[in-house]
Write a structure and sequence with these properties.
The protein is an alpha/beta fold. It contains 15 helices and 15 strands. The chain has helices at about 5-15, 20-30, 40-55, 65-80, 90-105, 110-115, 145-160, 210-215, 220-230, 245-255, 295-305, 320-330, 345-355, 365-375, 440-445; strands at about 120-125, 130-135, 135-140, 170-175, 180-185, 195-200, 235-240, 260-265, 280, 310-315, 335-340, 375-385, 390-400, 405-415, 430. A hairpin with a 2-residue loop joins strand 2 (about 130-135) and strand 3 (about 135-140).
Length: about 450
């Protein structure tokens, strides 16, 4: 179909004849109380004409991103110049930006991905987008033209990391080039249209000073945790969904000395380490024939043959916990990982459960001995009702007493300080007055800690 025919068809669609899928999308928006997009059909026609005009140039690897963007914008202006319907300057600028975003990026999501204040983008079907700012959810103005438009965007995201999503594999984890985490669920599992969730990561990884400025941690505890990492303690970062575990893991990993070999293992590579000697491994889902899957557990086992000084696991959620414990108990000290849990004690229970998932016929006491011998420290993080993320527990794994793993809290968040009128917590991390038993282990590795930081701090003061 020629350009003239496409534009004529778009105009007929706007006048109410020859309706296409975009009209259904507008009707859906109206039913949901969302504003209609008067240029939906025009954008569809111009988009198709633009693809027809540029053709293979869009996939020419010899073109830099700047050259490709320039060609798209020039061609787009030429295509829009054939449009007979009067367009205001602002409408033309908006159409140019939206179609450019669709060709070069991720369509309606681009404005929110560029916005540094947006930390998460949630798409609930083609007509509903929510964003998170400062820990709170807000409805967004952006919309997809229809379900097919949303599915094309999802396919573009997952294809870049060699993954797929379709009826035979309707769920997928992926990542954007900047490391932002992506999850997509498509019909038939997602009933009201495809669902897409993007958790953004800062272009420049947060550093310890940033967490202190946010109130997530105190300078004293940062210095203590830095000593623990340099002293090769095994650290578990725990917390609920969205509590900031990966950010804290990034900060802790930054304390690893530059002269050590680090192996990172993740479902979707999102850690941002700046050391020179880093090997990044990523798990792989099965292909369309159900073959070729590589699990986190497989990567942990393989990492032991790669002469690691440190193993950093993005998240432990299954039988990989057994192999991780084996590594920690066979001389691979200084490992760091994360896990979902509600408290430090729950973290240990989850690890026990995940080890049992491995199918090993081990008595519970033997598993607990492995856990107590493997981990030295648990850093637990929580997300408060105002959206802020705070480290609430720094807890030592002391050892075994009978059949029970003994824990002692070194630093606790002061909940008794209350909350501000805006709902923000007023408390900070305070020392419980207990000295950790692993100070001797740190000293053996050449790291000393000033014992005065463990002096008791009164809560509620």
């Amino acid at each position: 179909m020629s350009l003239t025919d496409r534009l004529a068809q778009a105009r007929r669609g706007r006048s109410g004849t020859a309706p296409e899928a975009g009209v259904d999308a507008n009707a859906a928006r109206a039913r949901r109380g969302a504003p209609e997009d008067p240029f939906a059909e025009l954008k569809r026609a111009v988009h198709a004409s633009l693809l027809e005009s540029l053709g293979p140039q869009l996939y020419d690897s010899r073109l830099s991103e700047e050259e490709l963007e320039s060609r798209v914008r020039v061609t787009l202006q030429d295509v829009l110049s054939h449009e007979e319907t009067p367009l205001t300057t602002s409408d033309r600028a908006r159409l140019t930006q939206e179609i450019s975003d669709d060709i070069l990026g991720y369509g309606p999501l681009e404005p929110y991905l560029r916005d540094p204040e947006v930390t998460e983008v949630m798409v609930n079907g083609p007509t509903t987008i929510y964003v998170e700012r400062a820990g709170r959810l807000y409805p967004a103005d952006g919309r997809f033209t229809d379900e097919a438009h949303l599915r094309r965007t999802i396919d573009k995201i997952v294809a870049r990391v060699g993954r797929r999503v379709d009826e035979s594999s309707p769920m997928v984890d992926a990542r954007l080039p900047d490391g932002s985490r992506v999850n997509a669920v498509v019909p038939p599992l997602s009933i009201d249209g495809a669902s897409l969730t993007i958790r953004k990561f800062a272009t420049d990884a947060y550093e310890a000073e940033d967490l202190v400025s946010f109130g997530s941690i105190t300078t004293t505890v940062v210095d203590f945790l830095a000593s623990c990492v340099k002293g090769r303690l095994n650290v578990m970062v725990s917390g609920g969904t969205g509590a900031g575990k990966t950010t804290t893991l990034n900060v802790l990993s930054s304390f690893i000395p530059d002269d050590e070999r680090i192996i990172t293992i993740e479902d979707a590579a999102e850690l941002q380490l700046h050391q020179d000697h880093v090997v990044r491994l990523e798990s792989r889902p099965p292909n369309i024939e159900g073959k070729g899957e590589v699990k986190i557990r497989d990567l942990v086992r393989n990492a032991l043959r790669m002469r690691p000084d440190r193993i950093v696991i993005g998240e432990v959620r299954d039988a990989a916990a057994l192999d991780m414990l084996q590594a920690m108990n066979t001389g691979h000290d200084g490992s760091i990982c994360t896990a979902h849990s509600n408290s430090p004690r729950d973290t240990l229970s989850r690890i026990e459960t995940m080890v049992l998932m491995a199918g090993a016929d081990l008595p519970l006491k033997a598993i607990r001995e492995q856990v107590a011998g493997g981990f030295d420290l648990i850093v637990h993080q929580s997300r408060f009702r105002d959206g802020s993320r705070r480290i609430t527990h720094v807890t030592e794994v002391v050892g075994m007493e009978g059949d029970v793993i003994t824990l002692q809290d070194l630093f606790l968040f002061d909940y008794t300080a209350g909350y501000s009128e805006e709902g923000s917590p007023l408390g900070t991390l305070k020392s419980t007055g207990l000295r950790p038993k692993f100070l001797d282990k740190l000293a053996t590795n050449g790291v000393t800690v000033d014992a005065s930081i463990f002096a008791f701090e009164k809560f509620g003061a």
